[in-house]
Amino acid sequence: ETGVTQSPTHLIKTRGQQVTLRCSSQSGHNTVSWYQQALGQGPQFIFQYYREEENGRGNFPPRFSGLQFPNYSSELNVNALELDDSALYLCASSLSAQSRSYGYTFGSGTRLTVV
Amino acid sequence: QKEVEQNSGPLSVPEGAIASLNCTYSDRGSQSFFWYRQYSGKSPELIMFIYSNGDKEDGRFTAQLNKASQYVSLLIRDSQPSDSATYLCAVYLTGGSYIPTFGRGTSLIVHP
Fold first, then answer.
1. Under an 8 A CB cutoff, do A100 and B102 touch?
2. Between B54 and B75, where is the model more confident?
3. Which of A76, B40, B43, B111 has the smallest count of CB within 10 Å of its CB?
4. Is residue B39 within 8 angstroms of chain A, CB to CB?
């Protein structure tokens, strides 16, 4: 059984550029959530995908968008990067989006630096 | 008032002591509660889940839930230096959401 994998691990981008982060969910998990974690802060919810549909969205602008594929892997796209987008981006998978009894399995994260 | 609150710390305890980490939440109807451990530079790792009032024990870890007072605690007995990490509380708030809200985490330092 494989865990959650994210790529790349580190990324440096210039303000105004676009970035795509990737995530492969844990085997058997159909739900993927993306979080942004700034230094010293808790994870902030960006959005969740369940069976290829967006299942919830946090307080992030539309330039943050995502996809989930039939194999439940997912992408996070960020357009028009801003300096404040510099953070650790975490992907988390879970068994179901319809239950409050399942915890998340997190990937190792992508550290994005915008300069 | 933030929905899920944790003291950022750091909480410093000597090796072998009991570390007590607290989390309060604003929504009285909140249900499931999770504790995650996050080592510096790493991603969060699930360590405890509790949904009923009272205590739940797993090895050296005990989660305590008090819904009337709206807090959940994590006790770590016989603390070890390897327990030094940030501990995140996550709560499923009411309103039909199946998405947990995370606190900012409490940094724990266990010194030899």
1. no
2. B75
3. B40
4. no
